[in-house]
Amino acid sequence: MRRLFAFLMVTVLFWSFSGQAWECGQAPPTQSPQRRKAGEAFPPLPLPATPLRRSEKKNPPAPPVLVGKVICGTNESWTRAENDVDNLLKVASSQLSLIYRAIRIDLNSFSFDPDEIPILYITSVEPFTPEEKVLPKLKSYLEQGGFLWVNASSGSPALTEATTRWLARLFPERNLYPIYANHPLKTCCHTLDRVKIMADGQEGENQLQLRVLNLGCRAAVILSPYDLGCGWAMHTHPFGTRYLPADALNIGLNMLTYCLAWIEAGKFYGSTPLYVEPVKKKSGKIYLGQVIHSGDWDPHPAALGRILRQLGEQTGASVYLERLTVDLKKDDLKDVPVLYLTGHFDPRFSPEEIRKMKSFLQSGGTLLVDSCCGSQEFTDAFYQLVRELLPQGKKVVWKQDSPVYQFPLKIDHFLYLVPVERPPLEAYLVGGLPAIVFSPCGLGSGWEGIARPFTPTLVPNQAREIGINLLTYLMNH
Predict the structure, then answer these.
(1) Which of 167, 258, 316, 443 holds its CA 20 to 30 A away from the CA of 144?
(2) Strand pairing class (194-199; 202-207)
(3) Residue ranges per domain, the chain?
């Protein structure tokens, strides 16, 4: 009886002091910040017979809205972690001094202006697809620089599958890719490799599981197939698949850091015009053919035209500015002197495509390969590819004193956005001449003139200078 009475008393005290209880899956309610002037804490002394009226509590100005949590249903059953993103932003305020807030939004009344709310956040256990009339607005929002986070609450495969389907309708030419080993989302704030998860009640470790849909080089959509929300709200459950709270928060801080750094870059997507030649005559001009493949082949559409124009201005060479795309499955390569291959992910060429590139190199063509954003996945795929294309090619790393860095512009040092130890160019020689030139440092990103934050790439100015020198070198060799 005494034990029952004690239990009831503890329960009453809990309800009395908390002011509000919350269901399992809900975070504690947010307390509104309050400020008072120093003299407002106590009444004036000596205390008068009639107490003086004290000032009302003053709320601080509301911080700007960074995240809009999307209402995904007709009731609140969709949001299993009530204060998930709110708590993440509190931690960001404490650890990173990033002062922002989140609000709930209804997509039917949202302006879809990224300047108003830069990040939209969808979380649900049930499959969710935005209404048909909303989808074009959402596509425009992403193309103008907005971000979309999608969290599969409890690791819901239904939400992941539904999201994959409607994104494929919005961007049929783009894919959701697992992030590569050195993606900025793994490194920009906390270095995340192995992270702690709970799968059906069993704790363990795994690689960070995030999928991204790129617009240009920017991960405009970040989808987590493992639950982040409960971890952000500082609790967990023995069902489903989820990140444990400490690592969930670190992942969220990386997502915030990444998006804030890439907001300005996202606004430039699609704004750099592509050159169009009025007369489609390539004879006597320098031009390149860009290879189409399944590994995100077109991260910077304006890059080739811009570097060719700068080459012409610097050297007086006659250049063909309009970009030429090459489909190895069907296009003839006999009129293409240089192939340009770039991307973030494994191109996964078919045996027939590899055979065609091999024949191209044997006929005297040159392959210029560029690992966009310094992607480790693309770099690893290139090294496998070069073993198939040029098994007898001699690899040469062009160091700082190489002729390629001396003319027409003298380059005496290399500047990267994050530290990189190796030089930016290496070549594979056949008969002493470069058949393949590879940059692991994202030349094309710099050619476009827009820096890619947190990536092991050259600063734009130097990427431009090296590009001019490299194309000049290839013209003369």
Answers:
(1) 443
(2) antiparallel
(3) 62-267, 289-475
Residues whose CB falls within 8 Å of the CB of residue 105, separated by 6 or more in sequence, listed in order: 68, 69, 70, 71, 117, 120
User: Which are the contacts of 227, defined by CB distance < 8 A and separation ≥ 6?
Assistant: 151, 152, 153, 154, 155, 156, 240, 241, 242, 243, 248
Per-residue pLDDT of 291-348, as tens digits, reads: 999 999 999 999 999 999 999 999 999 999 999 999 999 999 988 999 999 999 999 9
Output the six-digit token pair for 60: 């601080």
Cβ-Cβ contacts under 8 Å for 162 (sequence gap 6 or more): 127, 128, 129
Give the model's confidence band at 80: pLDDT under 50 very low, under 70 low, under 90 confident, else very high.
confident
What gap in Å lies between CA 425 and CA 54, rounded to an integer?
70
Distance CA 285, CA 318 (A): 5
> Residue 237: left if φ>0, alpha if ψ -120 to 50, beta else—which one?
beta
Query: Are 395 and 426 a contacting pair, CB within 8 Å?
Result: yes
Phi, psi angles (nearest 5°) of residue 61 = -60, 140
Domains 62-267 and 289-475 share a fold: yes
Report the alpha-carbon distance of residue 360 to residue 371 in Å, rounded. 21
Record: fold of 62-267: Rossmann fold (3.40.50)
Round to whole Å and give the CA distance between 229 and 247: 12
**Which neighbouring-strand residues pair with 289?**
324, 339
Which residue, among 79, 86, 179, 174, has the nearest Cα to 122 in the 3D structure?
79
pLDDT in tens, 81-104: 889 999 999 999 999 999 999 999
- The three state secondary structure string of 19-57 is CCCCCCCCCCCCCCCCECCHHHCCCCCCCCCCCCCCCCC
Contact 59, 133 (CB under 8 A): no
Name residue 262's beta-bridge partners. Answer: none
Q: What is d(CA 453, CA 227) in angstroms, rounded to the nearest whole number?
A: 27
Beta strand pairing status for 194-199 and 241-243?
A: antiparallel
Pick the CATH number of 289-475 from 3.40.50.12140, 3.40.50.150, 3.40.50.2000, 3.30.870.10: 3.40.50.12140
Q: How many helices (H) and strands (E) does the chain have?
A: 12, 17
Tokens of 199: 């799968």
Q: Tell which wins on pLDDT, 292 or 62.
A: 292
- CA–CA dist 171, 250 (Å, integer): 29
pTM: 0.86
Residue 181 has pLDDT above 80, yes or no: yes
pLDDT bracket for residue 433 (50, 70, 90): very high
